[in-house]
Amino acid sequence: MEECIRKLLHGFHNFQETYFSGNSELFAQLHHGQHPRVLVIACSDSRVDPALLTSCDPGDIFVIRNVANLVPPYEPGTGHFHGVSAALEYAVRVLKVEHIIILGHSDCGGVRTLLDPGMDFSGSEFLKTWLSLLEPVRKKVETYLPDAPHSTRCRACEEMSLVQGLKNLLTFPWVREAVESRQLFLHGWYFHLTRGVLYSYNRSTREFQVLTGHDQDYNHSWEVAK
Ligand SMILES: [Zn+2]
Questions:
Q1: Which terminus of the chain is more solvent-facing, meaning fewer CB atoms within 10 Å of its CB: N or C?
Q2: What is the CA(177)–ligand 1 centre distance, in A?
Q3: 107 C-alpha vs ligand 1 centroid, how far in Å?
Q4: CA-to-CA distance for 51 and 65, rounded, in angstroms?
């Protein structure tokens, strides 16, 4: 058996022996259904597991993961398979979550490919179309930050894609309705992989601010691009 699979089985055995056996009441309760109060929309990236990052228990968060933690706009119709929109609908209309967190992260390969001129998507069957959701963000960065360092442009792109996602969430009528009646609250969080810091988007100041952790070097040099 391959080492990577053996590691997973060993991990599951460890889960059975410790977490599962130590939380038998919780799992007995979960048998009757899930009632998560939070939906997290996160990247598929193997380095940013939302449940691990937030030390959540099973049943705490409903999770949608996709390349670059994107939210497509509301596009009803039967001609396509809307995986993200279907999960969003289930979370908001059936589970009635009270919070939606879009969780972005630093070093996001999906977002950074936008700024990499060497990236050739001509042979892509799905990625190119999916990442085209970020085209407005790329254009803004190209317009307002053409000469900024690559790292600043990447971070701007990652943060602005979160803001774009929050805007796209509001194109879903039942999301907008729940937000306006204050039954649902939207959040944009950004996890910095090497600093271990979590930032949150402040809608009033239109800035990302440290939510938990320390980052004295953080600057907002891309503000103009918002
Ligand atoms: Zn990512």
A1: N
A2: 29
A3: 7
A4: 12
- 192 strand-pairing partners: 197
Residue with tokens 């009441």: 25
Q: List the structure tokens of 115.
A: 């700024």
d(CA 205, CA 31): 43
- Report DSSP state, residue 92: I
d(CA 192, CA 45): 13
Bridge partners, 63 (sequence order): 40
For 78-115, the DSSP string reads: SSS--HHHHHHHIIIIIS--SEEEEEEETT-HHHHGGG
Measured in Å, residue 222 CA sits from the centre of ligand 1 at 20
State residue 224's pLDDT score.
47
How many residues does this entry show for the chain?
226
In angstroms, what is the span from residue 62 Cα to ligand 1's centroid? 18
Collapsing DSSP to helix, strand or coil, 124 comes out as: coil
> For tokens 């390349």, what's the residue?
67
Average pLDDT, the chain: 92
User: What distance in Å separates the CA atoms of residue 64 and residue 42, rounded to the nearest whole number?
Assistant: 6
The two three-digit tokens of residue 124, written as one number? 């892509």
Task: Quickly list H helices, 113-189.
Answer: 127-131, 135-144, 150-169, 173-180
Whether 59 has a pLDDT exceeding 60, the answer reads yes
Give residue 56 CA to ligand 1 midpoint distance, Å. Answer: 20
Q: Mean per-residue pLDDT for 1-10?
A: 96
